[in-house]
Amino acid sequence: MPRSFQEIIFKLNEFWSDCGCVILQPYDLEVGAGTFHPATTLKALGKKHWHAAYVQPSRRPTDGRYGENPNRLQHFYQYQVILKPSPNNIQELYIKSLEKIGIDRTLHDIRFVEDDWESPTLGAWGLGWEVWCDGMEVSQFTYFQQVGGIDCNPVSGEITYGLERIAMFVLGLDNVMDLPFNNPDSEKSLTYGDIFRQAEREYSRWNFDVANPEVLLSHFQDYEKECKRILSEKKIDGHLSESIVMVQPAYDYCIKASHIFNLLDARGVVSPTERQNFIARVRDLAKMCAEAFLESEQAQQRN
Amino acid sequence: MPDLVLELYSEEIPARMQEKAAEHLRESFSLGLIEERLSFERLEVFSTPRRLVLIIWDLASHSDSFFEEKRGPRVGAPTKALSGFARSVGAKESELYKKKESKGEFFFYRLEHPGYLSEKLIGKITLKVTHGFPWQKSMRWGGSSFRWVRPLRSILCALYRENQEPKVISFEINGVFSSNFTFGHPSMCPGKFSPHSAQDYVCGLKDRKVILDFKQRKNLIWESASKLVKGKNARLITDNSLLNEVAGLVEWPVVLMGTIDEEFLELPKEILQISMREHQKFFSVIRIDTGLLYKFVVVANLESKDEGKSIIEGNSRVLRSRLRDAKFFFNKDLTEIKRKNFVALNHRLASVTFHNKIGSQAHRVKEIRKISVNIAKLLNVDAGLCDQAASLCKTDLTTYMVSEFPELQGVMGSIYCKIEGQNESIYNAISDHYKPVTQNDDVPKEMIAVVVAIADRVFTLTRFWIIDEKPSGSKDPFALRRGAISLIRILLEKKLDIKLGDLIEQSLKSEIAQDLYQFFTERFKVYLIEKGYSHDTLRACLNKKNLENPYGTFVQIDQLEKFRKTDLFPRLMDAYRRPNNILNSEENRSKKRYELEPSVELFDTTEENSLMDNLVSIEKSVRVFLLQKDYSNALQTLAKLNDSVEAFFENVTINSEVQEEKDNRLHLCNKVRKIMHSVANFSELRI
Question: Which of B140, B151, B324 is opposite residue A145, by nearest beta carbon?
Answer without folding.
Answer: B140
